[in-house]
Amino acid sequence: MHPTELHAIVAAAADALLPPGSAASDDALPGAEELDVATRVLALLGHLPIVHQRLLRAGLWLLERVPWLRLQPRFSRLDRTQRAAWLQTLENVSPLTARCLLPIKMLVMGAYLEAPTVAQLLDVGNGQKVPLAEPLPPVQHLPVQRPEALPRQFHAEFDVVVIGSGAGAAPLARTLAGAGWAVALVEEGDSHTRDEFTARPLDRMPLLYRDAGATVTLGNPVVLLPIGRAVGGTTVVNSGTCLRTPDRVVAGWQESFASGLSPEALAAYYGEVEHTLEVAPASWSVMGGNAATIRRGVEALGLAGRPLPRNAPQCHGAGQCAAGCPTDAKRGVHLNYLPQAVQAGATIFARARADVVIREGGRAVAVQGRFRATDGTLGGHFELRARRGVVVAAGAIGTPGLLRASGVSSAALGRHLRIHPATGVTGRFPHEIRAWRGVLQSYLIETLAEDGVLMEATFPPPSLGYAEAGMTLDGHGRKELLGHIGQLATLGLLVSDTSEGRLLHIGRDRSPLLFYNLNDADRYRTLRGMKLAAEILLAAGATEVVPMLEGVGPLRSRAEVAACFSRDWPASRLQLSAYHPMGTARIGKPGQGVVDGWGAVHGVQRLVVCDACVFPTSLTVNPQVTIMAFAHRAAERILETW
Question: What is the pTM of this model?
Answer without folding.
Answer: 0.95
